[in-house]
Amino acid sequence: MCVLMEGAQRAQRIKRWTQHCAGVILLLVVISAGIAVARGGLSITTPDVAATPTACPAGDRLLAGLPQPVDLEAEQRDYPEATAATWADGALWTANESGLLTRWNTQDGSYKQYRIPNGSVVRSLVAADGQLVAGTDDGSLWLLSSGRWQSARACADVAVTSIASDPTGAFWCACPGEGLVKVTPSQDEVNRQVISASGRVHDAIQDIRAVAYDPALAAVWIATRSGELLRYDTHRQQWAEHLTLPGQPAIYALLAEPGGPVWAATAGGLYTYHDGSVHSCPASFGAASRSLARTADGTVWVAGDDRIARVTDCGASPSVYTDADNPLLLDRHRLVVLDETDLPWFIGRHGKVHFDATSWIAIDADVRRRATFVPVEPVQDAVSPPRAFPSPRASYVDWLRTWPRPSGDNGRGMHFLQTHQYDAIEAQRQINRLVQLGVRWTTVIYRDHTQLRRTAPLFQAAGIAVIWRPFVRPYQSYVSWIEDVTFLRQRGIAPYVQLYNEPELEQEWNGLCAVNREVYLRMLLPAVRQVYDAGGYVGLQLMTPEWLRATLRAMKAAGMHDVFDRVFFIPHLHGLNHPPHYTEDIHGVLGFREFARVFEQELGFVPVMVAGEGGWRPGEQQDNRFPAITEALHRDYHLEVFNWFRTGRLSDGEPLPDYLFAFCPWLIADPVDPAAWFDSAAGDRTLTIEAVTSLATFERRFSWDHPR
Question: Could you tell me the residue range of the domain that residue 127 belongs to?
């Protein structure tokens, strides 16, 4: 819910959030909603819907959720692609296409940036004997030691794509078009030797891509882009083995276990070669593997195009984490290196992912934001949410029991961020806070189908049920209702979908046309049918009983009687400065009962309700008969509402109705809105956060849990 601020603060807020605010100006939401204090009660008036409307926009502006020409998350910063990484000198070193080489101290967060003296781009990195060695795109090796650079020629005129060091201090370099080159620096000179080859070996190594050194065999392993694997015996100075992997996949990286298997990361997945036998590892799953690293205990970490894997043995089932199931991995695992504690760091364009033996941590490219998470493996045989519901008129209890609820349901909710301007790291940061608060329900605004796909798995992994609300105006038609519901069902996620938001209020019409019920219904009715037919749960959200009644009658007139079996309602229960027991009108947290009466009159039953917004904001005092909301009242009032679901009693002593599934206060976090529990310029709601966090664990019980 947006808030009207005073003076400059109000102007700044409206300028910043007008295009993206998810809610409406409640309470003194005043101007547009027409809230007026009158003799001890509040009344709400809506604009005259019979008035001649301003023409609504046409063309694409009538459509919401269209595919973006540029991904908005990537558009925030066009980060260069990572090209190389290694661990050296107690720090993580990464290079990228812009020519930057960065040393990042992961302990204190400090970092230092370098550029190769001749401006070339680093294509390969290795640490050896206390120095950093960089292979560049102009064919040079650059050695950094004690803050000083030294250079040596490796490749004649192409990039050094891979480097391996041996115990003698020599560097073995992959030079495409030239072959394997040995570079041996000394104090006086640098010796460069192109390893000779003939026949098929000569032809093969022209396509060299990666090298690895095996100290047990004193051998260099060479991999090519055409799937060939060769071994060079450095003692005998001769080529010893030459084989081709099945299907000739391009090989991107090699890992040589001393005296053991050679691991190959390829375009066709992960392979091993040992004692004349080639094996394809299950970690492949048909996807490309790009980089790999082996720990002292034999674990091999693999970075692929769209996944990472932890492999203990090529023939064993690996742990595989895909981008689709773990959005925090997206574009964060082009490369993998091990730190001095033998733990993996995955590096990509948009940041890094680290496993610290206890937790997984995603870090953005600017290393300013991070979020811990628990990766999940691909969903297998997901159980689709129920689609066939019993009749609520024939068996109301059975009907209510059919609606999916989260495990450990305690009715406790929280509205997520008030805009769709968030990436996976920000989403995970806030989800971690929801988990801290014991939240099991939330309302989430999202931009389009792409963002839904990148966000839903995060909430699913946290066990939080979501009311999904695409950002769509009352005069717009959203293009992905069916696609969204289908995706949620395929993942086994309950498809609770809110179709529109607060259509009575001018704020939602964005100044482009006047509030008009006919226009809203013209958008709503096709959306209802699309969501229902796709197997979704149809969420209605209205601010006034009058508009709710009109909406239900329009649905009935359109012959949508079948739809009501899967309709639920999302009341917005803002308390203003009224205490939880306030019952004089709908402007309190018990206001949902007025909407329940409308449903009973129009449908003959009351649907499931999840309060998608609500609660109190510090400082509010719209009704001068009651005290302003202090931090203490903010805490006490919210605790009282959350306790409805523990005690089974509302604040006025009435039984908690089974149909009220959850209450989601406004708002988990926001930099401006003082209602936000975290991150607000007005400070965190510390008293409330501490009190809610300390609530005892319980599971909400319904009337059917108390047999008579």
Answer: 91-195
Q: Using CA atoms, how far apart are residues 671 and 674, in angstroms rounded to an integer?
A: 8
The CA-atom distances, in angstroms, between 118 and each of 99, 115, 161 are: 10, 8, 18
What CATH number should be reported for the domain holding residue 682?
Answer: 3.20.20.80
Residue type, 63: L
How many domains does the chain fold into? 2
pTM, full prediction: 0.88
In sequence order, what DSSP letters do the residues of 415-435 get, joined into one string?
A: E--SSS---HHHHHHHHHHHH
CB 476 within 8 A of CB 446: no
The pLDDT tens digits of the residues spanning 212-247 come to: 999 999 999 999 999 999 999 999 999 999 999 999
CA 632 to CA 385: how far, in whole Å? 40
Of 195, 215, 243, which marks where a domain is finished?
195
Cβ atoms 360, 374 nearer than 8 A: yes
Give Cα separations from 111 to 102, 114, 353 (angstroms).
7, 10, 17
**pLDDT of 29 over the 50 cut:** no
Separation CA 27–CA 35 (nearest Å): 7
As a whole number of angstroms, the distance between CA 337 and CA 343 comes to 8
Euclidean distance between CA atoms 180 and 172, whole angstroms: 7
Tokens representing 555 are: 């649905």
- Judge whether 508 lies within some domain: yes
319 vs 331: CA distance, rounded Å:
19
Say which residues have a Cβ less than 8 Å from residue 57's Cβ, sequence separation at least 6: 475, 512, 513
Averaged confidence pLDDT in the chain: 90
Of the residues 195, 215, 245, the one at which a domain ends = 195
Q: How sure is the predictor about 20, in pLDDT bands with cuts at 50, 70 and 90?
A: very low
Token pair belonging to 386 = 């129920």
pLDDT at 47 over 50: no
Q: Is the CB of residue 675 less than 8 Å from the CB of residue 615?
A: yes
| pLDDT surpassing 80 at residue 524 | yes
Alpha helices per DSSP H over 372-516: 396-402, 424-436, 449-462, 481-490, 506-509
Mean pLDDT of 328-353: 95
707 pLDDT band (50/70/90 cuts)?
low
671-698 tens-digit pLDDT: 999 999 999 999 999 999 999 999 999 9
Q: Which residue has the tokens 């932890």?
A: 310
- DSSP code, position 107: T
CATH number of the domain within which 174 lies: 2.40.128.630
How far, in Å, CA of 283 to CA of 269, rounded?
7
Q: Lowest mean pLDDT of 169-178, 277-286, 302-311, 546-555, name the range.
A: 277-286
DSSP element (H, E) containing 595: helix 592-603
Token output for 20 = 């993206």
Nearest of 543, 588, 546, 587 to residue 569 by alpha carbon: 543
Number of neighbours of residue 46 by Cβ within 10 angstroms: 18
CA distance 331 to 346: 10
30 against 593, higher pLDDT: 593
- pLDDT score of 287: 81
Cα Dmax for the chain: 101
In a domain, 348, yes or no: no
Residue 338, token pair as written in the block? 């091990």
- Distance set, CA 263 to CA 125, 158, 204, 295 (Å): 19, 26, 19, 13
pLDDT per residue as tens digits for the range 141-160: 999 998 899 999 999 989 99
Residue 551 has pLDDT above 90, yes or no: yes
Based on its alpha-carbon atoms, the radius of gyration of the chain, rounded to whole angstroms, reads: 31
Helix (H, G, I), strand (E, B) or coil at 240: strand
- Please check whether residue 370 lies inside any domain of the structure: no
List beta partners, residue 538.
497, 567
45 in any annotated domain:
no
Helix 592-603 crosses helix 545-557 at what angle (to 10 degrees)? Answer: 20
Within 13 Å, how many C-alpha atoms sit on residue 166's CB side?
24
Contact criterion met (CB below 8 Å) for 695 and 439: no
